[in-house]
């Protein structure tokens, strides 16, 4: 992490507050991953209703994402970060008082606003602070808050699930959210640390510094990554919604939090390694690898019948997530200007949100027809389809897409590479 030693003291301090706020945020979010599906089911919900409630989380994201993306560009990064932190500090307490499926659906949609706000503002501020030449490396390091949160939160949530009442678990999550809010208040807006980067001329493919949403949606360099994130959102939605229920259905004595813990450890490792390398050899090779990791993860879950298989799947999922998320953020940053970055993130990451929502809302019905193993097989096909799309359409032409996906050429859509 030598790059942080080269920054000014105020910038390093800003990174520290931002990182710890992110850690508190993800601890709050992930501690509920193994808890909520079981809680909803214990309220008397069917698998389909569990999917509906979990999917409503992403509906909140989708409804808020575009507005918050514009707010990031027009009103600053910190304000949107604070919105996300405030929601994550409030939402867990509400679950204590909810006892019906309709109430849970509404509250989960409200909770979803937290991710839409925090992740968009956080990513934009990190890129503002990062030197352009080290952008991938800094993004990867700062995104370590996610695997750290996921290595602790789900394990704690899974442990508490069998030992304390649900209200206690929700209070623990709420306290983590309050800590995130208090630290987010300490962060400051910042201009990019490399002023010269703001003066670079735009390429012919990027003729405006602040395109509107319609122009961004039409740009192949942006809508193809969004489509890929949509597919992976579906895959992740299947994982979050149905993995705890699958393990319960098998009757295994296995804390599902251990799956997320294994994923977090491998995610942590991949983020340490790929960021710096991507600044040198490009984002494409690592995105390709991450999509294949998701494919293998779902294949393993399709055949998993013992704890060792679930742990192996967790490791593979962590490698995929730990590489895909920072690399996609870096890719979108390469292909956009600072003035439009919030909107660009809201489109690309918004694809992921839509996928999660569709997985929860509609795949619960599919699960009733094909079973849990069948739904993981479908998810594996979706992950491989996203890899094929990136391999053939990830850049300007099929030939350059293939070379970019294999790390043999630069990004033709990047402002500077």
How is this structure best described in words?
By secondary structure, the protein is mainly alpha-helical. The protein has a single domain, classed as Up-down Bundle (Growth Hormone, Chain: A), CATH 1.20.1250. It has 16 helices and no strands. Helix 2 packs parallel to helix 5, helix 2 packs antiparallel against helix 6 and helix 7 packs across helix 14. The chain is globular and about 50 Å long. The protein starts with a helix and ends in a 12-residue tail after the last helix.
Describe what is shown at a glance.
This protein is mainly alpha-helical.
Highlighted features:
Growth Hormone, Chain: A, globular, 78% helix, 417 residues, mainly alpha
Shape: globular
CATH class: Mainly Alpha
How many structural domains? 1
Give the rounded overall mean pLDDT.
Answer: 85
CATH architecture classification = Up-down Bundle
CATH domain topology: Growth Hormone, Chain: A
Number of strands: 0
What is the share of helical residues? over 70%
Number of contiguous helices: 16
* N- and C-termini, Cα separation: 22 Å
Structural class: mainly alpha
| Secondary-structure element string | HHHHHHHHHHHHHHHH
Runs with pLDDT <50, length 5+?
Answer: 192-208
> What fraction of residues sit in β-strands?
under 5%
SSE layout and pairing:
Blueprint: H1 2-5, H2 9-30, H3 36-42, H4 47-75, H5 77-94, H6 101-129, H7 135-142, H8 145-161, H9 166-184, H10 213-218, H11 220-250, H12 256-281, H13 284-303, H14 307-334, H15 341-393, H16 398-405
Helix pairs in contact: 2-5, 2-6, 2-8, 2-9, 3-4, 4-5, 4-6, 4-11, 4-15, 5-6, 5-9, 6-15, 7-12, 7-14, 8-12, 11-15, 12-14, 13-14, 13-15, 14-15, 15-16
């Amino acid at each position: 992490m030598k790059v942080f030693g080269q920054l000014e003291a105020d910038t390093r301090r800003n990174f520290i507050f931002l990182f710890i706020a992110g850690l508190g945020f993800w601890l709050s979010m992930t501690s509920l991953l193994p808890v909520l599906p079981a809680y909803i089911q214990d309220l008397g919900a069917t698998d389909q209703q569990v999917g509906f409630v979990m999917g409503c989380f992403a509906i909140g994201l989708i409804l808020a994402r575009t507005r918050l993306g514009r707010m990031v560009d027009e009103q600053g990064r910190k304000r949107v970060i604070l919105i996300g932190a405030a929601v994550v500090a409030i939402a867990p307490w509400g679950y204590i008082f909810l006892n019906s499926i309709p109430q849970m659906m509404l509250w989960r949609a409200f909770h979803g606003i937290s991710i839409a706000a925090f992740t968009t503002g956080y990513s934009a501020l990190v890129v503002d602070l990062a030197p352009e030449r080290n952008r991938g490396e800094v993004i990867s390091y700062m995104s370590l808050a996610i695997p750290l949160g996921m290595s602790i939160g789900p394990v704690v949530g899974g442990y508490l699930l069998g030992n304390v009442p649900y209200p206690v678990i929700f209070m623990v999550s709420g306290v983590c959210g309050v800590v995130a809010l208090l630290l987010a208040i300490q962060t400051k807006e910042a201009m990019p640390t490399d002023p010269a980067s703001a003066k670079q001329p735009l390429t012919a493919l990027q003729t405006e510094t602040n395109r509107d949403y319609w122009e961004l949606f039409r740009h192949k360099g942006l809508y193809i990554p969004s489509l890929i994130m949509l597919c992976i959102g579906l895959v992740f939605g299947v994982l979050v919604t149905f993995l705890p229920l699958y393990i319960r259905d098998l009757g295994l004595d296995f804390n599902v939090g251990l799956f997320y813990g294994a994923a977090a450890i491998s995610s942590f490792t991949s983020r340490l390694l790929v960021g710096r390398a991507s600044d040198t050899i490009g984002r494409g090779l690592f995105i390709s690898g991450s999509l294949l990791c998701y494919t293998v993860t779902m294949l393993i879950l399709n055949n998993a019948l013992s704890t060792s298989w679930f742990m192996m799947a967790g490791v593979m999922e962590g490698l995929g997530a730990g590489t895909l998320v920072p690399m996609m953020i870096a890719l979108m940053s390469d292909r956009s200007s600072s003035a439009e970055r919030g909107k660009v993130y809201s489109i690309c990451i918004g694809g992921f949100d839509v996928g999660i929502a569709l997985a929860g809302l509609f795949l619960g019905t599919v699960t009733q027809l094909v079973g849990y193993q069948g739904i993981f097989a479908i998810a594996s096909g979706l992950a491989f389809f996203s890899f094929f799309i990136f391999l053939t359409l990830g850049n300007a032409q099929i030939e350059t897409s293939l070379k970019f996906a294999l790390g043999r050429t630069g990004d033709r859509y990047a402002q500077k590479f």
